Amino acid sequence: MSNEQEIIDDYTERVGRHLMGPARDRAKAELGAHLSDAAEAGELDHALSRLGPPKEAAATFADLRAAPPAPMDARLVAVVIDNLPLAGVTIAMLVRGVFRIAELGSGFALAFPPFLYFEIGEGCVSVGPVHCDADVYDYAGLLYSLGVPLALLWSIVGLGLVEAWTGATPGKRLMRLRVVTEAGLRVHPVSGVVRRLSLVLGPAAWLDWLPVVWGDRRRVLDHLTETKVVRAAR
């Protein structure tokens, strides 16, 4: 029986990894009781066969599976909150650029999200149509060469992993939103990061929101990663 209990514990634990919050606790409790009864009746293997792989079993407990995508206004507010470091860096660059005009009488370039570039020796690698050694970006100094990459690292990797681990970023939690797969399950860390990669494109990142124009509540990368943002279950 001890071996069967280990099998039951392992299976319920793997099911729980695909769920969050009350759904996870309910699934582990109900499955544990069901499989224990099946083990006492000598039908544990049959019960596990009917339940299928842990991911399939988890989908039957996903309370957000049928939830429709959340309103875009709530999502946009969450985006602003989550990307405050990136917005802060951009505003700081704007202020510095204004002072540069007053001192030198020359203009400056600014975009949100900012384009990302890396300096390698005397050269550079840019992901956008920007010459990273151009004079219009010299005014930003470390603010651009260090602040922007760090802010983007938080916005893409940091928030992506937080989203995968907890189901919600700080902004989404405040707006009572959750990110789940189309089956209502926990998002994989890779998907959490990939669905934010549009930010490295600078202002072209807004193309990711193009489906909003025709009433779609899911971004391009939401469709690509098969995820959706929904209202959190009460």
Written description of the protein model:
The protein has 234 residues and is mainly alpha-helical. The protein folds into 2 domains: 58 residues; 160 residues, no CATH class. The chain has 10 helices and 4 strands; from the N terminus they run ααααααββααβααβ. Strands 1-2 form a two-stranded antiparallel sheet. A two-stranded antiparallel sheet has the order 3-4. The longest helix is centred in the middle third of the chain and has 25 residues. The chain is elongated and about 85 Å long. The mean pLDDT is 85.
Q: What percentage of the residues does DSSP assign to strands (E)?
A: 5-15%
Q: Kindly name the structural category.
A: mainly alpha
Task: Determine the number of helices (DSSP H or I, runs of at least 4 residues).
Answer: 10
Q: What's the total number of strands?
A: 4
Radius of gyration: 23 Å
Spatial strand order of the main sheet? 1-2
- Spell out the helices and strands N to C: HHHHHHEEHHEHHE
Calculate the mean pLDDT score and round it. Answer: 85
Q: Biggest β-sheet, characterized?
A: 2 strands, antiparallel
Shape: elongated
Low-confidence stretches: none
The tally of domains stands at: 2
Percent of residues in helices:
40-55%
Distance between the ends: 38 Å
